[in-house]
Design brief:
single chain, alpha/beta, four-stranded parallel beta sheet, two-stranded antiparallel ribbon, about 10% strand, binds protoporphyrin IX containing FE, binds iron/sulfur cluster
Length: about 500
């Protein structure tokens, strides 16, 4: 069931990913920057919100008038800012949704990786509370609908004894104090929680990507400005508690569940929202599973070079004072609570080289479930008869399934970053294969840095790098953004086959 849902999510993201890669390139592909784009939209909302704040009046009569003034008389700036505020908030909902689908599709939330997922759930609530309270403040007919329906929802919470919906029965009951409270929540209270929540969400990750690329930010801002100039955010008639608005134009990004309050009941909507949140919260353990064994340090082979600590995407390796009396100053220590068993640290370790004697192939750090020694044995077995192309593919990937199904010589790794460059050197210099295909994730590796570090190591920009004697052109690093289309890897395989023919002729 889980595999089916994840496959569905991959199929949903696959075609837009390929299209966006074709138009923006892999580096600037918005689908590779969903978390950081969400933060960028928060910035746009904040800056445009500050402008609106200068003109907004927090009173029953002043609220609508001040927004009306911005929308009609200061349309060139205030109106633009208001539309920008609205559209950036809507875009935030879209990137948030896609971010959740993407992390789910690539298993980045399971077991040990539960923390970012679980801390993301309150962020969904905060974003929606901010959106709803924002609509309330405008005090037009939509705000009236939002206020009354929200009050019905709030009244269903047993802790509140005073019925809030009663405030909206007669205009005389609605006070300016109430508007000041809403404005405080929307402008100060909720944003503070959101900033803290985002910090908590990413603080355990090493080098979290907080900003999208500059080009992506500029392009996104221009698109939002064009949208704001072409379709100014609508403002409906002023709220009038004496009559029930006949038609309200809902913002479906934020208010899609509001009609359900009338159709079902506030209690049923609460059950749905809490049920969904609860389901999301326990998702990392559904079904329960056993986390793979964490990376293990072998002090006899660790020289304290720190490379594993620098490359680990989850800050799971710390350097500590030497405990075994060897002449080195430091040693690597793995925090088993943080280690997600990606193997990227092994790819960084200078002692992980297959040129060592078989009995001595124990690097400074290794994965017990798929050790360097096992990997070399697999390579030796697969290439008993030297092959033309040898592929290394990440476990769990569609590429690996295609390679196995079509009987292509391939070696399974946890992540492309698990392979130290001496392994490629070993395969090519010993003539075990003519070309190597490394099938990693796209620009947004499921273990965050696996593809990036591999690419840099192959380009000799990051240690341990590929030795000069190895022709880097004989190693192809493929992106698996075509993971839903086996055609991608099939055509790459043909290209490599042809390249070997050309090398020979
Ligand atoms: C305002 C809302 C959110 C923002 C701004 C945000 C931002 C981010 C950022 C910047 C990252 C780090 C990306 C990287 O450097 O690799 C990230 C990772 C992640 N987020 Fe979010 N996020 C939000 C909501 C959510 C939600 C609602 C969920 C799921 C329920 C979620 C799940 C995750 C997961 C699973 C990771 C990856 C952790 C890993 O690689 O192990 N996020 N998010
Ligand atoms: S296996 Fe991955 S998470 Fe664990 S220590 Fe190594 S790089 Fe870090
Ligand atoms: S990369 Fe290897 S040798 Fe260097 S500190 Fe880590 S385990 Fe030790």
């Amino acid at each position: 069931m889980l595999a089916l849902l994840q496959n569905l999510a991959r199929r949903l993201l696959g075609p837009p990913h390929r299209y966006l890669r074709w138009s923006f390139s892999e580096q600037h592909n918005p689908l590779n920057h969903l978390g950081s784009l969400s933060i960028f939209f928060c910035w746009v909302v904040l800056v445009s919100g500050i402008w609106l704040l200068f003109f907004f009046r927090t009173s029953v009569t002043g609220a609508f008038e001040s927004v009306h003034y911005l929308a009609t008389e200061q349309w060139y700036l205030g109106g633009m800012m208001r539309s920008l505020h609205r559209y950036a908030s809507d875009a935030l909902v879209v990137t948030l949704f896609l971010h959740i689908v993407k992390e789910f599709s690539r298993n980045a939330y399971r077991l040990k990786r539960w923390f970012s997922w679980a801390t993301g759930i309150p962020l969904i609530w905060l974003v929606f509370l901010l959106g709803v309270s924002g609509y309330w403040l405008v005090w037009d007919e939509l705000a009236q609908y939002v206020a009354i329906t929200s009050a019905e929802l709030i009244d269903r919470i047993p802790v509140f004894t005073d019925k809030m919906a009663a405030n909206f029965l007669r205009p005389s009951l609605l006070s300016d104090r109430f508007f000041t409270l809403m404005a405080f929540l929307h402008l100060i209270g909720l944003p503070i929680f959101l900033v803290f929540g985002i910090w908590l969400h990413v603080f355990k990750l090493s080098r979290p990507r907080i900003n999208p690329t500059r080009r992506l930010m500029a392009g996104t801002l221009i698109a939002l400005l064009l949208l704001a100039a072409t379709f100014p955010a609508p403002l409906q008639e002023k709220a009038d508690l004496a009559r029930v608005p006949q038609v309200v134009q809902l913002d479906w990004f934020y208010l899609h569940f509001y009609p359900l309050v009338d159709r079902w009941s506030p209690g049923a909507v609460w059950s749905l929202l809490l049920g969904l949140s609860g389901l999301l919260f326990v998702a990392p353990w559904l079904p329960p599973g056993k986390a793979p064994a964490v990376a293990v340090v072998d002090l006899d082979n660790c020289n304290g070079c720190q490379r594993c600590a620098e490359d680990c995407p989850y800050d799971a390796v710390q350097m500590a004072a030497r405990s075994d009396g060897k002449r080195y100053q430091q040693e690597a220590v793995v925090d088993p609570e943080l280690c997600v068993s990606c193997g990227i640290c092994v790819g960084a370790c200078p002692t992980a080289t297959p040129f060592r004697r078989k009995s001595a192939l124990v690097p400074g750090i290794d994965l017990p479930d798929l050790s360097m020694r096992q990997l070399r044995e697999t390579i030796d077995n697969v290439t008993e008869i030297p092959t033309r192309v040898l592929a290394f593919a990440c476990s769990d990937s569609a590429e690996l399934r295609w390679l196995k199904k079509n009987g292509k010589p391939c070696v399974e790794v946890t992540c492309a970053g698990q392979l130290p460059p001496p392994f490629f050197d070993y395969v090519l210099s010993k003539g075990l294969a003519r070309r190597i295909l490394v099938s990693g994730c796209d620009g947004d590796c499921r273990f965050r840095f696996g593809s990036r570090w591999t690419e840099m190591r192959l380009r000799r920009e990051r240690d341990p790098h590929l030795r000069r004697r190895v022709g880097a052109h004989r190693i192809t690093l493929a992106s698996s953004s075509d993971s839903t289309s086996p055609a991608g890897i099939a055509s790459l395989w043909r290209e490599l086959d042809n390249a070997i023919d050309e090398d020979e002729s």
